[in-house]
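Same chain as my last thread, 192 residues:
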Amino acid sequence: MKRRMKRKDAGTIFNPVMFLVLLMLSAQLLIMFVEYRRVAWLSGVVTNVMTDALLGAGTLNEYEVYHYGRTGELEILYPEEKYHIFQDILCEELRLMPDMGVTDNSVALIKDGVKIKDFKIYSVQGSDITVYDFDERADYTVHRMENMTGVFASENGEVIEDTALVAEIGFTVEFLGMPVEVCKYHMVDLGS
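reply #2:
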């Protein structure tokens, strides 16, 4: 003889199962929210560090100060020095090794180190712009453009009117157990 389940018996099984499913979904959403907040925190930290590093790299050396005092123009005379200052400040602030690899003391969440994907110096002299374009190996090319001040725009669409430094760095973070490549782009206008 088959026993039929009564309606009230079915509810006693269904309610605990639904409760467990809802509990698991809530826990998953909470974990996702916490992970997102950690990555958002890291993004803010990296933006601040990039600003500091670009401003530090933009600090004039004695020859550039002399040139500025003589001509009134902020011209970058030693671009390699600016790149290496930027790299050194990034390493110091994010607690990386000199080769940009991670250490036990590196900023949390960053895996496998940091790469400088792009570093550009827009050196403005009058109405002309000289662009020092560095690659990932710290080699650079020089492009000179006449009468482009106030007309030429950087990759993100900002019009170049004063000497500026631009950088893009990349690093890997772990988000919900999966590696995710993150790129941060930042520009600092030295003339303002």
